[in-house]
Each structure stands twice: as structure tokens, then as C-alpha cells.
Specification:
The chain has 313 residues and is mainly alpha-helical. The chain is built from ten helices and five strands; from the N terminus they run βαβββααβααααααα. It folds into two domains: 139 residues, no CATH class; 170 residues, no CATH class. The protein binds zinc ion (ZN).
Length: 313
């Protein structure tokens, strides 16, 4: 007997991808964040900000915000859920015991996630794990992914609202109306500012609760997913490199060096590297000895050297 979370259109679950089962919650979370930040910031008027949740069968496009709009595409959300599952389930940590089938399913789903960045293909609910139709989920692989995905989605909302509340969207638009673009370095600073703003808001709700772990993993997954959306780990002209964004967030959280989070972020980088380079270039030489932080930092250093190499090619 399979569990089916789709309500046949009785509730607002638009779209065709299995991610549609979150439909009403996507909107509810948007309205909650908007209300919370309207109380928090008296300088930015958020009353006109609308959520544009697109359902189109096209390849994934990343979220963005303007002064009155936050746009998120359901192919991107599908990508994020599948990436979360692939990373979380296949990571060789956390004490879970997987069958070979479960492991390869996770790897296949990760491949499907990455394919959505190139072209749209329907998420096959019979073949791949998904949040709409699934079996009993005894190991809570779907449940853990839903939770991680959910915090990732909320982090993205806070990040996009952050651009509005912190005056970034206004500054960018004002500059454009005068016929120039804000300098790339300043745009990157804005991204870091929005990342830290989002982290602060999200953590306020969960710090010290049983949700803290999922929330942090959700944030790291959302940032880790960007290693694939942007030009092979380089952030491009407007965004810091995704590995540096992971570092900013982890440094801010300041967790003990033996905590799982450092190892998880390391795993996100290795997953990227295996996909593109298959060379072990960034794999640290030291043994982790339980010091995941040192392992993560060494990976970052190796990654910076790889980037230099690539730039010079
Ligand atoms: Zn941004």
C-alpha cells in the first residue's frame, strides 16, 4: 500500500511535479515570513510583495526578487528536493544503514536533479523517490528529505525577502534607472548580507529546539545546491562562490569542529567535484580524526587551487 499525498486538486496543489504536495505550505510560509518581516522592518513596505510560484515544464531557473516580487519556479524546487535526497541519503555519515538499491536510487535521483538544470524531464514517481507517492518510509529517508527541503525553501524565502528588507533591490533598480549597474563586488557583498540575514532569521525560530539540526542541514543543502546552478562552482559576477557561501554560514554558526555539519558541507563539495572532475583534486590528504572542520577547510583550500588552475586554462 502506497502513501499518496496528492489531494486530487481539492486543495491548492498546482503543477505536475510531485513537489506540488507542498503547494499550500509554500504560500503559507511566504505569507508568514512576509508578516514577520513587516513587523521587523519598518523601513521596507512589504505589503505589495507577491509570490510568483511558476509551474511550467521548462528547465530549472533559480529564484530571484524585485521590489514587489519573489519568483520561484517549481522545476527549481524539484531540483532542490531531489538534490536534498541525493545528498542526505548518499552521504556516508549519520549512522544510517542503506541497501544497495536505496544507495543507487539516491545516486540516480541526484543525476535526475542535475539533469533538470539542463532540460526539463518529468519526475518519474514510479521510479524515483518523491514526496507525493511513496511506500512506508521506515528509514525516514523521505521524511528527513522533506524536513531538510522545507528549511531550505524557508531559507531561500528569507534570503529573497532579505534583499528587499535590506534595500538591495531598491539600490539595484535605482542604479539601473540612472543607466548604470552596481559594482560586482558590492553585489557580492549584498548576497553575503542576505545569506547572513536569512540565517539569523531562520535560526531565531529553531535554535536549541529539536528542529535545529534539520534547519542547519536545510541551509547547507540549499547553498550546496548552488555549486551546480552556477557556472561550475564559480559564483559568477553577482554571487560569491558557493563554497565560500557555505563557509560564511558555517563560520557564523560556529559549531564544534567535530559536528556533523562540517562533514556534510564537505560532502556537498565532494559531490560536486565527483560530478565534474572525477579526479580527487580537492579531497583532503589528512585523515579527519573526527575534526570535520579541519577537513572542510582543507577541501576549500584545495578547491581554491583547482579554481586557479581552471582560470589559467
Ligand atoms: Zn540573492
Amino acid at each position: 500500500m502506497k502513501c499518496n499525498n496528492y489531494l486530487n486538486g481539492i486543495e491548492d496543489q498546482p503543477g505536475n511535479q510531485p513537489i506540488r504536495v507542498f503547494g499550500p505550505q509554500f504560500i503559507y510560509a511566504f505569507e508568514s515570513v512576509k508578516t514577520e518581516l513587516s513587523d521587523y522592518s519598518h523601513s521596507a513596505d512589504l505589503s505589495n510583495v507577491q509570490l510568483n510560484l511558476l509551474n511550467e515544464d521548462v528547465k530549472a531557473k533559480g529564484p530571484f526578487s524585485t521590489e514587489n516580487l519573489i519568483q520561484i519556479h517549481d522545476t527549481f524546487l524539484s531540483f532542490l528536493w531531489c538534490y536534498s535526497y541525493g545528498l542526505l541519503v548518499a552521504a556516508p555519515m549519520g549512522g544510517k544503514v542503506l541497501s544497495n538499491d536505496e544507495y543507487f536510487e539516491a545516486r540516480d535521483l541526484l543525476k535526475y536533479a542535475l539533469s533538470l538544470l539542463r532540460t526539463f524531464e518529468v519526475w518519474d514517481k514510479e521510479r524515483y523517490p518523491n514526496p507525493e507517492i511513496h511506500g512506508k518510509d521506515e528509514k525516514k529517508l523521505i521524511g528527513a528529505t522533506n524536513s531538510c527541503f522545507w528549511y531550505g525553501y524557508n531559507y531561500i524565502l528569507y534570503h529573497e525577502f532579505g534583499h528587499i528588507v535590506l534595500g538591495h533591490t531598491e539600490r539595484v533598480q535605482r542604479a539601473r534607472s540612472y543607466g548604470y549597474d552596481i559594482h560586482e563586488d558590492e553585489r557580492k557583498d549584498m548576497e553575503t548580507e542576505a545569506d547572513l540575514f536569512a540565517l539569523d532569521r531562520l535560526m531565531k525560530e529553531v535554535l536549541g529546539t529539536s528542529h535545529e539540526f534539520s534547519a542547519i542541514i536545510g541551509v547547507l543543502t540549499a547553498l550546496g545546491s548552488l555549486t551546480f546552478t552556477s557556472n561550475r562552482v564559480f559564483g559568477g559576477p553577482y554571487h560569491p562562490d558557493p563554497d565560500h557561501r557555505l563557509k560564511t554560514v558555517l563560520d557564523k554558526l560556529n559549531k564544534a569542529s567535530t559536528e556533523y555539519y562540517w562533514g556534510y558541507a564537505f560532502w556537498a563539495l565532494i559531490t560536486w567535484e565527483v560530478e565534474f572532475y572525477k579526479s580527487g583534486n580537492i579531497w583532503p590528504m589528512s585523515s579527519p580524526d573526527g575534526d570535520f572542520k579541519a577537513h572542510f577547510y582543507e577541501t576549500l583550500k584545495n578547491l581554491d587551487s583547482l579554481k586557479e588552475e581552471l582560470k589559467n586554462k
